[in-house]
């Protein structure tokens, strides 16, 4: 399994939907430049980040075919097969698996009469984050809205990023190479992590490095799933996306669109908070 968080979340989805998973298939799948999305046969949709940088060898048709051997065969495939792909080692198939898991999580919420946590729509997790005055924030990934806010409010922070080219000039003084996570993450009073770490399997390790008293936020379309496994490992807030009109959203994704093209129209930002004591 790519990550224990995904393994536990798959188990939670199976437990909640039970026999409802039987016969459920993927009606449509799209691997766009920025996002990967699916629509299930029950009408629910889900998104994931498309890990383009994880497949630098896919520069021609033969090598690309090795990366996505199921092209043309995804429609009608059982959702269980996509969940099994979360451990297949192929990043594109794993991205589809995460999109399916997010769609199934939406199905779970529709069937839950009540929740033990707060789920809010139309809100951005970055806007709700309480900044550590006099403390240190650590951001994992080039999360532009969070970096802008930290700079504007003169908060001491570090940004861990694998590709420094994604950072602007004024952000570079705060840059720390990703391989120094073990020395930087324990310094954080506030830890903000890109949801992409759910897909590449690094989130669990980052959470283990965090101090018990650190406030932890995981945000991004990839992290749009049942939150229980995340809360159990110290995450306080999940920020994700709830797909509301999957057909229209997948049309946008297929045409290379990003969140600017579908938020508020075909999908809503979503914030999930861990319940208090």
Would you write up a description of this structure?
The chain has 2 domains: 4-111, 2-Layer Sandwich (Enolase-like, domain 1), CATH 3.30.390; 118-273, Rossmann fold (3-Layer(aba) Sandwich). 34% of the residues lie in helices and 21% in strands. It has 12 helices and 11 strands. An 8-stranded mixed β-sheet has the order 4-11-10-9-8-5-6-7, with helices on both faces. Helix 1 packs parallel to helix 4 (91-111). The mean pLDDT is 91.
**Percent of residues in beta strands:** 15-25%
- What is the CATH topology descriptor of the largest domain? Rossmann fold
Class based on secondary structure composition and strand pairing:
alpha/beta
How are the strands ordered across the major sheet?
Answer: 4-11-10-9-8-5-6-7
| Oligomerization state | single chain
N- and C-termini, Cα separation: 31 Å
Count of separate DSSP helical elements: 12
Mean model confidence by pLDDT: 91
**Bulk shape:** globular
* Whole-angstrom Rg: 18 Å
Model regions low in confidence, pLDDT < 50 over at least 5 residues: none
> Largest sheet, described in full?
8 strands, mixed
Task: Spell the H/E element sequence.
Answer: HEEEHHHEHEHEEHEHHEHEHHE
Count of strand segments: 11
Q: Please tell me the CATH architecture of the largest domain by its name.
A: 3-Layer(aba) Sandwich
């Amino acid at each position: 399994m790519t990550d224990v968080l995904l393994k536990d979340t798959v188990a939670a989805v199976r437990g909640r939907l039970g026999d409802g998973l039987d016969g459920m298939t993927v009606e449509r799948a799209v691997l766009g430049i920025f996002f990967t999305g699916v629509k299930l046969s029950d009408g629910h949709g889900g998104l994931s980040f498309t890990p383009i940088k994880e497949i630098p060898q896919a520069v021609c048709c033969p090598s690309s075919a090795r990366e996505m051997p199921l092209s043309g065969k995804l429609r009608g495939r059982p959702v269980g097969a996509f969940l099994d792909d979360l451990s297949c080692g192929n990043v594109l198939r794993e991205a589809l698996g995460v999109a399916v898991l997010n769609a199934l999580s939406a199905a779970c919420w529709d069937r839950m009469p009540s929740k033990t946590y707060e789920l809010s729509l139309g809100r951005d997790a970055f806007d709700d984050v309480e900044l550590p005055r006099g403390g240190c924030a650590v951001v994992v990934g080039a999360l532009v809205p969070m970096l802008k806010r930290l700079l504007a409010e003169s908060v001491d922070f570090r940004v861990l990023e694998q590709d420094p080219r994604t950072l602007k000039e004024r952000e570079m003084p705060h840059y720390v190479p990703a391989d120094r996570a073990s020395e930087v993450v324990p310094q954080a009073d506030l830890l903000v992590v890109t949801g992409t770490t759910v897909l590449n399997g690094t989130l669990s390790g980052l959470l283990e490095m965090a101090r018990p008293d650190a406030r932890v936020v995981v945000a991004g379309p990839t992290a749009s799933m049942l939150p229980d496994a995340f809360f159990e490992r110290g995450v306080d807030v999940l920020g994700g996306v709830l797909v509301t009109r999957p057909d229209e959203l997948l049309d946008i994704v297929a045409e290379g669109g990003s969140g600017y093209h579908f938020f508020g129209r075909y999908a809503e930002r979503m914030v999930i908070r861990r319940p208090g004591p």
